[in-house]
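Cont'd.
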Amino acid sequence: MQLDRLALRLRRRRPWEAGDLGCRMVQTWWRPLMAAWLTAYVPVAVAVYVALREHPAVAIAIVWWLKPLFDRVALEVLSRAVFGEVLSPLAALRALRDTPGIVASLTIYRFDPARAFNLPVPHLERLRGRAARERSRSLGRRGRGAAVWSTLVYFNFELVVTLSFFGAIDLFTPSGFDRDFGLKSIFLAGEETPWRQALAMAMQIATVSLIEPFYVASGFAQYLNRRTQLEAWDLELTLRNIAKGDADGSRPRAIAAALLAALVLAFAAPREAPAAAADPETAIKQVMTEPELQQYKEVKRYRWKADRDARERDTGERDASGLGELIAGFARVLMWIAAFVLVALLLYYAWRYVGAWAPEPGRRRQAPKVLFGLDVAPESLPPDIAAAALAAIEAGRAREALGLLYRGALSALVNRDGLEVEAGDTEGDCVRRTAALVDADKAHAFADLVKAWQATAYARREPSAPALRDLLASWRAHFEAAAP
Amino acid sequence: MDTHAQNTGTGLDPEHLARAAADADAMRREIGKAVVGQEDVVRQVLAGLIAGGHVLIEGVPGLGKTLIVRALAKTFNGSFRRIQFTPDLMPADVSGHTLYDPSTGQFTTRRGPVFTHLLLADEINRAPAKTQAALLEVMQEGQVTIEGESLKLEPPFMVLATENPIEHEGTYALPEAQLDRFLLKIRIDYPSLEEEKRLAKQVTLSNVGEQLNVDAVETIVTPEAVVDLQRVAAALALDDAVVDYAVRIVRATRTWNGVSAGAGPRGCIALVRAARASALIDGRDHVTPDDVKHMALACLRHRVRPSPELEIEGHGADTILAALLDRVDAPRA
């Protein structure tokens, strides 16, 4: 690997950023890439569509199935372009002759959700069978998720572009003409005239040619990024540059760069051995014999039996269900969060409404001290209200007498009968609430008292002495507290 | 009435007041003979008349809106007209117009249906804005101008406009400024089970067809007596604490959470007027906070606009006002 000839700036990127780098690759080297792609793809697609024009669905399926084949052509061009080599379309096609794993990629791995990411393993590293599988697994350990998602994203892109093409036909069809060759024709087979078939075929070819190179490039860039992480290409390049700087005699820069490299090395993730080394097994064995790796410690802990059973069932052959595992893991986390929130809510409401359903006797609401600007706390009233009211009547202080009776009645209702009065309650509301709480006679007596009080308060019309005595008598009957 | 009443100092002779209160109460009971249930609605319509205002009634068709108006008209021997508002109704159809009579060579003035005591403007939101405006002008001024000649309407004059809350296809919603001209907006709802049973029996008994029957209603007062009722209501004793309560309620609508536009000073005036009428119907010579509270919904529901987020949640002006009334402190006498 001649890393110093690489036309990319190597650094550790996130998988998505690497995907963007792939799009930049397509923009930079679109000439050789599109030339090779169209040379490979268009003739085959046209031939299949024409040969199977009676069965358009079969033709579309076959051309779709052959995609990995064309992807290799695009990959070949890109893999040379990153080293500054421009490949002619024919040279790219020739590369297909001696690339391994074509059959596998058209059969078992046709539905691999991380297709573009894994394609360089057989095509560029020339690995096949078990070796290729292991290599893909080690690459996919941190990067498969993003690769699967990109496949989904590009699949959707293709869908959108296809629908847009057909939608454009609908858009430009003048009204009055039949519209059965627009979006409708995707779902309902209409009348198949040759030109329509040709147009549908052209649109299919255009869609795939527009999207697929980007997909391949983004998978390739993610693959390069993963290898940069695994094999520390970026560090290797830095060290080489330092070596070169040494030769040039530029000491200070070299020292700074060396320090930087040392720092990066100190904090870098432990490096995995590249599975593509010449003979990895002997290398590993050799490394394992070193004294640092000969320290064993026995650790005991409890484990679920289910885990053990599952591990026994797990034969080590992991299937390609990365997306499924991802969704399952996600759902599991969500479920735990939901359960936690639910329990927290239950606890909160239990705490908030504790005792709301079963009020204990004796735990009554604190009776208010002041109502309508009047003090109704028992201690604020004279001990013998009736006597005090009578004295006020005798002295001709009607308003004071009525006020005493009214406050006494309210105080009795609030403190003894549990009348609850809110800030916005008018006198009439109090009368209505009282009617629901106490017997009719008492409620009636209170209503009369309120009426007299309202006339005094709002009409400045004080009741006459006889009326006051009547009110006092009924007050004594209903509101006077039993002797303490 | 309080039997121990002395002269109240409001300039009202107690006997006069007692007579007025008895009249108001009798009118309410007479309307109740024809209209089954809907006591609140009847009471509010009567309060609207006594307060000298106009009312907007909202309710689905067939709940007896016309019946209430006809019964009310019959109680004081008032004239009653009904206009069905439609998109092609012109202002002249409401107020009247002048015609050239070729046989006499004279212009004759044809008075429109507004020349009446009680005017039922059915589905007022079906007519275009200029026709609505013509009617609203009549409501405001109490007079009609035809060909430059102003004609006074004979009091009492009251407009009862109706709106159907469920159909908005092809309607012209009344703008807020015009809604403000109505003293009350009354909601009329379906009758209860018992009321509906009584209603079915009463309407079908010895009555062919579905003609609404107001024969049972007797005329008890004259239109002049109604004008007198309005004067008495305006003279009832009103304590500062009660005015303060009404003002605090209206002011609270402007700052209340969930109201995008509150009621203006006109809402305040309307609330006090309606409270006075309510006190008279109850036979009192003074206004209490209860009167204000009872009338607050009808006075303010068309003057406040709930915020969009509350409307989306399905809360109308009534819900907001009910919450507001619970929170505004009642007067401390």
